[in-house]
Design goal:
Structural class: alpha/beta
Order of helices and strands: HEHEHEHEHHEHEHHHEEEHHHH
Largest sheet: 9 strands, mixed
Radius of gyration: 20 Å
Bound molecules: iron/sulfur cluster, FE2/S2 (inorganic) cluster
Strand content: 5-15%
Number of strands: 9
Strand order of the largest sheet: 7-6-5-4-3-2-1-8-9
Helix content: 25-40%
Distance between the termini: 51 Å
Length: 367
């Protein structure tokens, strides 16, 4: 049996078109080592990548960044995705999207818009984003999206500065006409790990926010879908990160590296293939990085003998590495992990009385 007959095709792809962004969010999921504009794939290569993704089975493509609208060819790339049958989701900060550009994206076949909101309070939202006026731009782009009849998803990342307004952020998403909101508590790796002391909320604030959002789920049933990603550090079992490594989705970085998840480059020793030398299908089925943690054969105890190993696939490899030093260990969020006490210690840590300043992530894109 060859590898392809045992491995399901990918269904989703995150295309990080650029790491440039006008915002500087201190919990950004981009790597600490941002890729420079000079290293970005050109238009023709991205088009080939999208064609190969569609051929390999990808159905949804998330046009992301950084700020994807910082690419001058964003309309051309969107039109190409639509032409090869991909459902396109633009993940945008809203800053850098003008009305003519938005209209051109809609005409090119854009299917969906996903907008991050930093807070329900304008001044706080702009401080978190590191950009004056970002909040107002987001409201405007949300209105264009609903007026154009496109579905809107709002992303809200929770942390110390906004957690007391979690419920107001859900109300705001309803007001903006979003069909879905993803309320995600900060995951501590990359930039968020660098800013952990500034971002970590108190346990009481977290518990209140979780309860408030759950209550709103009942209130808004049928009006908005609330995806609530509860804070890892207080959980008993880990999440199936990426729905399992190399099972559904892949990421392509601005310079063309094909990654199983956005933080995979933090794991030493993995060999990533680049779209400049390999097709998307080849990277998915045959690249060493995708096969390193696919399935369950790589697992160690306690995962090997655990009945949940095909449910959560041992949790997150990047978090296992960050907190235990070995990416093959069970994600220490799991209460069965011998390293779980370390997670409990972190969860019990009090947020400092005075939060330090943010270290903003910066690789400027013009607004
Ligand atoms: Fe998941 Fe491993 Fe924990 Fe079992 S032991 S629940 S497979 S992380
Ligand atoms: Fe890499 Fe979870 S972020 S496996």
């Amino acid at each position: 049996m060859n590898a392809q007959s045992q491995i399901a095709p990918p269904t989703g792809m995150l295309a990080e078109l650029t790491h440039r962004c006008p915002l500087g969010c201190p919990y950004c999921s981009n790597p600490l080592e941002l890729e420079r504009a000079a290293d970005e794939l050109d238009t023709q290569t991205w088009k080939r990548v999208f064609s190969e993704a569609a051929e390999a089975g990808v159905l949804h493509v998330h046009l992301s960044g950084g700020e994807p609208c910082a690419r001058r060819d964003i309309v051309e790339l969107t039109a190409h995705c639509a032409a090869v049958g991909l459902y396109t989701n633009l993940i945008t900060s809203a800053v850098g999207l003008t009305r003519p550009l938005f209209d051109a994206l809609v005409a090119a076949g854009l299917d969906h818009v996903q907008l991050s909101i930093q807070d329900a309070e304008p001044a706080s939202a702009d401080r978190i984003a590191g950009y004056d006026g970002a909040f107002a731009r987001k409201r405007e782009v949300a209105a264009w999206t609903t007026q154009a009849g496109l579905p809107l998803t709002v992303n809200a990342v929770m942390h110390r500065a906004n957690i007391s307004r979690a419920a107001r952020m859900v109300d705001m998403a309803v007001e903006l006409g979003a069909r879905r909101i993803e309320v995600a508590h900060t995951q501590y790796y990359g930039w968020a790990m660098k800013n952990r002391a500034a971002l970590m909320p108190t346990r009481e604030a977290t518990e209140k926010a979780v309860a408030d959002v759950e209550a709103l789920r009942r209130k808004y049933q049928g009006r908005i879908v609330i995806d609530h990603v509860v804070p890892d550090y207080h959980a008993r079992f880990p999440k199936a990160c990426m729905n399992g490594w190399g099972r559904r989705t892949l990421n392509v970085t601005p310079s063309g590296k094909v990654l199983p998840c956005h933080a995979a480059e933090t794991i030493p020793g993995l060999e990533f293939w680049n779209v400049r030398e390999h097709s998307i299908g080849a990277a998915w089925y045959d690249s060493p990085a995708f096969n390193a943690f696919r399935g369950t054969a790589w697992m160690k105890e306690p995962c090997v003998s655990c009945e949940r190993k095909e449910i959560d696939f041992g949790g997150c490899r990047c978090q296992a590495l960050a907190l235990t030093g070995d990416a093959r260990n069970a994600d220490p969020i799991c209460h069965l992990s011998p390293h779980h006490a370390r997670v409990q210690k972190i969860a019990a840590e009090e947020a400092p009385a005075i939060a330090p300043d943010y270290i903003y992530r910066r690789l400027k894109a013009k607004a």
